[in-house]
Amino acid sequence: MLMILGIVLFVVGLLITVGLHELGHLLPAKKFGVKVPKYFIGFGPTLWSVHRGGTEYGIKAIPLGGFVQLAGMLAPARAGARVVKADGTLTIAEQARRDSAAELEAGEEDSAFWRLPARKKLVVMCGGPFVNAALAVVLTVGVMCGIGSGVYGTTVAYVQQCITGANTCSAEQYSPAVRAGLLPRDRIVAWGDRSVNTWEQVQAAIANGGTDPVAVQVVRPAAVKNQTTAAQPAAERAARASAEGGSVGVAGGSDTQSSIVTLTVSPVLAERPLVRGGVVVKDSHGTVRTELTPYVGISPQLELRKQPLGVAITQVAKLAVGTIQIVAVLPVKLWDTAARLFSGAPRDPNSVVGIVGVAGIAGTITSAQAPGYDFAQRAADFLMLMASLNMSLFVFNLIPLLPLDGGHILGALIEGVRRQWARWRGWPDTGAFDTARLLPLSYAVIVFFIAMTILLVVADVVNPL
């Protein structure tokens, strides 16, 4: 049920995102006097609609997008343009021009989109993508400054039972953490003679301390201290017995409050992945390199910490750059996804995902069970997922190809430059940019997008990340 809840929330968020994107086109278009016959969320059969101010607003059955219809998008053919093919039929471009003109009734010719000056066309066509950009900024800043971003704190999330990595083992193979009596939800406040406030400080203290026994001070919640041990594994019961032999101080002198517990940890040397700058190091063959390093057997809990505005803005910039980098290599990523799909190879973790994959991520956020993964962290992760979606829509829609907004933006820019140059040189007005001539390319782009959508849906179902 929780998985389904996440998917439903994602679909609702997607529809809100699409609706706001299309409003970004509709509102300036109406402001500039353009006729807007339709504004719909979804595709396919109409479920509900209402007419207001000359526009039909409604919801369609397939909740995978939306559209706003701007009447008269295509300008008439320029003088001398070829409008008829050798067999006497209209060219694709000319047929599209006439269909566009037919969207206007007699007397409404001045309400055609193509009649707008270039600067107003830019405002209308940029409106949608920039709404997505604004949503990405608002969501990212709101999460990081209002809820907080996930960082690894000093609270223990998981204690590894055995040095070997197994969940059961003999007493001789218990991890140093188990032997010392460390428990999930313990908050480490000091390692040896050093106070620690971040997980990086804990890691550094372990790495620099070698295998010598060290005193570790933790704050243990009352719920952990008082819970029964009868159903706990033998290793965990041993940990509790060790903890009871340590030095304990109860804050406030009450069993319902946290205790300060001092434990003795004796790390052991173990083969661990070599990490540099937070990245696992691999050799030329792709094999993870390892090294002997002091090992305790604890993992940190992810915590939410509010960030300053500057950090949040930096995160927005990173999100934008990362999205641009993915879009720049999109054909390569799609080819790799297709190759792995048909070969049966595992999906690349850095692969692109489709709408099904993103919905699956949303479902995982609401259904995942992990220590400390509470409502606030789920909300933060879900909102950041929506921020990423909006940033992707912003960048993707700026690709200068029809039928994307970027194709119309490019046409308006070319039109504006040509007209301004003609004015400077004293030449006649060059007129509106003939977008219809690009329709054959537009159809090719549509076919590519359909193929991409089908590929990603199949890959997300058959070979998910």
How far apart the termini lie comes to 21 Å
Strand order in the largest sheet: 5-4-6-8-7
The description of the largest β-sheet is: 5 strands, antiparallel
Proportion of residues in extended strands:
15-25%
Order of helices and strands: HEEHHEHEEHEHHEEEEEEEHHHHHH
Give an account of the 3D structure.
It is a single chain. This protein starts with a helix and ends with a helix. It is built from 13 helices and 13 strands. It is elongated, with a radius of gyration of 30 Å. It is α+β, with helices and mostly antiparallel strands and 465 residues long. A hairpin with a 2-residue loop joins β10 (275-276) and β11 (279-280). The protein has helices spanning 2-31, 92-101, 118-147, 176-180, 199-209, 222-226, 234-244, 309-328, 330-343, 355-367, 375-397, 405-425, 439-462, and strands at 38-52, 55-69, 149-159, 187-191, 194-195, 214-220, 247-250, 259-265, 268-273, 275-276, 279-280, 290-295, 298-305.
Label this structure with key terms.
two-stranded antiparallel ribbon; 465 residues
List the helices and strands and how they pair.
Layout: H1 2-31, E1 38-52, E2 55-69, H2 92-101, H3 118-147, E3 149-159, H4 176-180, E4 187-191, E5 194-195, H5 199-209, E6 214-220, H6 222-226, H7 234-244, E7 247-250, E8 259-265, E9 268-273, E10 275-276, E11 279-280, E12 290-295, E13 298-305, H8 309-328, H9 330-343, H10 355-367, H11 375-397, H12 405-425, H13 439-462
Antiparallel strand pairs: 1-2, 3-13, 4-5, 4-6, 6-8, 7-8, 9-12, 10-11
Helix pairs in contact: 1-3, 1-10, 1-11, 3-8, 3-11, 3-12, 8-11, 9-13, 10-11
